[in-house]
Amino acid sequence: MKNYIFRRLLLTIPVFFGITVITFLVMHLSPGKPTDILTDMNQKITAEAKHRLVALYGLDKPVYVQYGMWLKRLVKLDFGKSFKDDRPVIDKIAERLPVTLLLNFCSIILIFAIAIPIGVFSAVKKDTIFDKITTVTVFLGFSIPTFWLAILLMILFGVQLGWLPITGFRSINFDELTFIGKTFDILKHLILPVFVSAFTGLAGLSRYTKSSMLEVLHQDYVRTARAKGLPEKAVIFKHALRNALIPVVTIVGLTVPDLIGGSFIFETIFAWPGMGRLGYEAIMSRDYPVIMCVGTIVAVLTLIGNLLADIAYAYVDPRIRYK
Question: Tell me, what's the pLDDT at 44?
């Protein structure tokens, strides 16, 4: 297992650099430059001043030279300074990343706590009322756009009923609250973004679990376990579920990057001060250093998620051994 993990870590290095090269090229192929936003709205800026500004940011150099300069800084964990406010990018990420991790951690817990039981019981109770209701709910989860669902929930629970806050991470009077009050205030702000971010993932994972469980329940070893007189709970959760989780583990490895990718949408809608919103603002302002930093973090999380999924195979299924 150790040798396998070591080889996988070595393989992630060229994959990681391939991702950064593609991101860098796509970023520079997009129309416009970061300096356009600073100069186009100011009629007093001369062509010479625009050229000096381009040279200041190093945008006058060939793309491969710019990528080499970025790569040298990356080795030192220096992502440069933001074009927008001249702040170090790593400081801006450090402010936003914990909030995004909190949101995504709560979403993952909600997804697995609900999706796997729904998938298992839908397979066990196939064609019952419970299965039909969950199937309809799952199809809604697949078909409803995230931004549209977020807006509907904001109108219902935030505007009409006034039960939940619809923007931000904390209330205006957050500093005046007690510790318990601050905790409940953050939880209230978490409810809508967590539900929206988890809804689609919950639908997908529950369907994968159901499909895998239906296949496993017809296997010979499950019928043998029942023929031996084992309790139904032991047959379902000890014998069937463990084997049914093998395909599900693949989906687990992609859950974290999917959530962060989706956070670009709902963090912007809910004005959530996370990394997804920072990435969206960076794309709109063509803030190259911030875009590359966010893309690098998402790439690392994707590679780590895939590696953890492969390692989890051996624990879910003892027959799998890596050499």
Answer: 64
